[in-house]
Design brief:
By secondary structure, the protein is an alpha/beta fold. 32% of the residues lie in helices and 19% in strands. Helix 1 packs across helix 6. Bound molecules: threonylcarbamoyladenylate (TXA) and magnesium ion.
């Protein structure tokens, strides 16, 4: 593994690695991705190996210009153009009927492909120079915390990736919002960095899909995900009693809302800003993973705007420890 600063020269070098079938971790505005040539099935297969990712879980193709979308996907729904015009580049992934050129391994055999245009200079340059859509899941081991800084990627994927481009902290900090477009319908598959309210202001009410948790078609539908290696539960009078005498790492939303002595204490956003809270969430959990504590207790946040994505990730992380 090479950890390189995301200079133009190093981005060009990383693009060559992608062209040659290698794996590059790169920053986006949401989280770091683990990228490979998305039109090369063998290169894309390496992503699944590196992450220990089950083969039923398809990958997102990242593109750098809107024209490329027409080469890999098909659609009739006129809302697609509206969504792209308004939100790309940005933290919105669209699942659309795929064209033949997209390898089956990328879509996990689905007739649809997930596509997004990241709002990050390093990612956009890398995709342009590689000259191909880059298939990239979040650059973590399957089921673990998503990386929002280059050292998080080193921790989980060291020696399983050829190059990591260090582009600093991810501004949004939670993964993209995923919408599936089928005919005239729009379904929400995962809450993420683009708030549902902003989407609905453009296309009207979005539907949700019944869950098929055995073979989910989006990680939004896996029950356990995004888990730190230390148990995580919601902070409440009950969990405080349950863990009294233990070493607790506490994460509050705006201010310390419960009295007590904690081994560690952090505040997601003193101004009560859900965007700032989302941007800090995974980084705080990565920090706590390194500490000698028995449990992470985290205060629930309001489920509006980015609060929906935050609560979705926390529920999945805590499900493992119920
Ligand atoms: O912000 C993000 O979306 C980040 C950055 C790197 O772009 N990527 C990301 O990828 O979160 P990943 O693989 O961790 O989550 C994307 C999910 C997949 O797990 C998959 O379930 C869903 O998108 N997905 C991909 N293709 C799909 C398809 N054809 N139908 C339904 N869901 C799909
Ligand atoms: Mg992921």
């Amino acid at each position: 593994m090479q950890l390189l600063e995301a200079t133009d020269k190093n981005i060009a070098y990383a693009a060559e690695i992608i062209k040659n079938g290698g794996l590059v971790s790169f920053p986006t505005e949401t989280v770091y991705g683990l990228g490979a040539d998305g039109l090369n099935p063998i290169a894309s297969a390496r992503i699944f190996e590196a992450k220990n990712r089950p083969a039923f879980n398809p990958l997102i193709l990242h593109i750098a210009d809107k024209e490329t979308l027409g080469k890999i996907a098909d659609w009739e729904n006129s809302n697609v153009e509206k969504l792209i015009a308004k939100f790309w580049p940005g933290p919105l992934t669209l699942v659309l009927p795929k064209k033949k050129i997209v390898p089956e391994i990328v879509t996990a055999g689905n007739p649809t492909v997930a596509v997004r245009m990241p709002n990050h200079d390093v990612a956009l340059k890398l995709i342009k120079l590689a000259g191909t859509p880059i298939a990239a899941p979040s650059a973590n081991r399957f089921g673990q915390l998503s990386p929002t800084e280059a050292p998080h990627v080193v921790k989980q994927l060291k020696n399983r990736v050829d190059v990591i481009l260090n582009g600093g902290k991810c501004e949004v900090g939670v993964e993209s919002t995923i919408l599936e477009i089928t005919g005239d319908d729009i379904f929400l598959l995962r809450h993420g960095g683009l708030p549902l309210e902003e989407i609905e202001a453009v296309v009207g009410k979005v539907k949700t899909k019944p869950h098929n948790t055995a073979k989910p078609n989006s990680p939004g539908q896996l029950l356990f995900h995004y888990s730190p290696t230390i148990p995580l539960k919601f902070l409440s009078a009950a969990t405080l009693t349950e863990y009294s005498g233990k070493r607790i790492g506490a994460i509050f939303f705006k201010k310390k809302s419960f009295d007590g002595t904690f081994a560690l204490e952090k505040i997601l956003s003193t101004g009560g800003d859900l965007r700032e809270a989302a941007a800090n969430l995974f980084a705080f959990l990565h920090e706590f993973e390194k500490e000698n504590i028995d449990v992470i207790l985290i205060e629930p946040v309001e489920e509006t705007g980015l609060g929906r994505a935050i609560m979705d990730r926390l529920r999945k992380a805590s499900n493992k420890y119920l």
